[in-house]
Amino acid sequence: MNAKKFSDAMSELDNKYIDEALNYKKKAKKPRWIKWSVIAACLAVVLFLGVPYSVQHLHTAKDGGDAGYSVATKMTFKAKILEVQENALLVEPLEGTEERELAATILIPTDDLAELKTIEYVAAAQAGDLVQIGYLKEDSDISNGIIAVYEIVPIENDLSS
């Protein structure tokens, strides 16, 4: 086909077909990888937010003396019992402990300590006793009076230990 024949053929076309061809827009198709990337990102967010929460709050059944477990960091400090109350112990963390910097005294509720192996000692505790207190760091806010105690053990009055 030469230029003349092509020009003649083009001049015979109806203008509506030319306009339609000029204004034709192909339907944009999203690549499949975008869809799968969005799904993977959503799944990653769910796992990132959900798994640490699930693991931190995972506990085993508390039957038969099994104390369960938590992924919280177990901390201990030495303290002196200042006062034995009906449902609490008022203790003073010893000098040089991190807990002493957070609070001069700590009130430990004893009504929730029934599952502790040292409950016999807690019932017999007296003012002036030195104790080692085990608590869960992530579940405690000592400066605001919240402490998640898991153990209270009497220690000798010798401060060199």
Radius of gyration: 36 Å
Tell me the number of strands. Answer: 5
**CATH homologous superfamily descriptor of the largest domain:** Nucleic acid-binding proteins
CATH architecture annotation of the largest domain = Beta Barrel
Order of helices and strands: HHHEEHEHEE
From the spread of the alpha carbons, the general shape counts as rod-shaped
Number of helical segments with 4 or more residues = 5
Q: How far is the first residue's CA from the last residue's CA?
A: 105 Å
Question: What's the mean pLDDT score?
Answer: 77
- Estimate what percentage of residues fall within beta strands: 15-25%
Q: What structural class is derived from the secondary structure elements? A: alpha+beta
CATH class of the largest domain: Mainly Beta
- Tally of distinct domains: 2
The fold-level CATH name of the largest domain is OB fold (Dihydrolipoamide Acetyltransferase, E2P)
